[in-house]
């Protein structure tokens, strides 16, 4: 039985800004640049763009249409699409439930670096093992995580229109201005370098731009390409917030007169532009001061490599560093809000309780869970080999299960449901309910019926280490 959801977006602008806020988060600014650097620069960009225009469009359209048509969050929405498919809603619910155990921790790390630049202690951040020493300490990461979690909870507590929409309308335009500003600045940088041979060269931001956008096909094998594809798809899930219930929840708040087709295109543009600009502001600047080697820092790219780059910039670097981490803070906050909102919306429907009560209870639960994951770097430290070949501890395990394992599985099952059980017309009818023209209707049909199930099955097998 349907329950009437309280609150909703006031209009298309508020919805697009909120959805873009979820999409344009720390996944774009933190995760996208290091994956691009790891996977051959322009090669990763090409694969990611192709996925956004095909898989991203298909999955995003499906999630939003399911949410708006059922007016329910993911935990019940799939059961409304087709009787007997409620299990998919429960699987989907697990993804934000896992992500929420570590998202506020990353937000706490970002908060730490804001404090460093505010207190004029940025030189400390360039010391060897500074980041490692910080995340393995027992008090500071927990305190900062609790602060970040509290801010997230207050915004969700205020509701959809007064909290999430109002925050997104203010923050999203500002984020783009800052990203564009730093990206342009990074292209103007130059640095004299003495090679081991004694020869002096000058590396520029434009040289870094070439490394970023020109595909590197050297040593490319089928296995390596599949890994690039898996990384790009994992980033797509994380970035567009698909296959985790977030966009179904946001779709349930969307009014029937909103043009979903247009909204999907706008979210795609916001997300892809933010991801590209994030790489543009980070990769050229790191290349200028650290070369190609500096881009191998992996997930620690913005916490280890970038502070060293800002330090090389002198006084300007202190200002740029502060502005950068403030921007990343708000990007992380917008994403964390969407994850918590999804959990709150689902629990409101599950337990038939008020938003305020659910928000407080979930906040306390996730504060405790995040403390445990924080202590995974010291008190509860251990390493385990993951099926995809990487090693990690608590935070990495949560990230692997949610992003690399569950999201491809959910997308596979969802594609089967939409493509073969209820049929693509179920979604297409919702997108075109007010007579709107669905320009990519043919692409949607082909993707959801034939291509998405096959690719998702291959990626799922890849994620569990079958090949």
TrEMBL record:
Location (main, coarse): membrane
Membrane topology per record: Multi-pass membrane protein
GO CC terms in record: membrane
Keyword terms of this UniProt record: Membrane, Transmembrane, Transmembrane helix, Transport
Keyword Transmembrane helix annotated: yes
Cellular location(s): Membrane
PROSITE patterns: NA_NEUROTRAN_SYMP_3
Membrane-crossing residue ranges in chain numbering: 12-30, 42-66, 87-110, 139-158, 170-188, 232-253, 274-295, 315-340, 360-380, 400-422, 442-464
NCBIfam families assigned to the protein according to its UniProt record, in alphabetical order: Na_transp
Alphabetical list of PANTHER family matching this protein: TRANSPORTER (PTHR42948)
Name of this protein: Neurotransmitter:Na+ symporter, NSS family
Gene source species: Lachnobacterium bovis DSM 14045
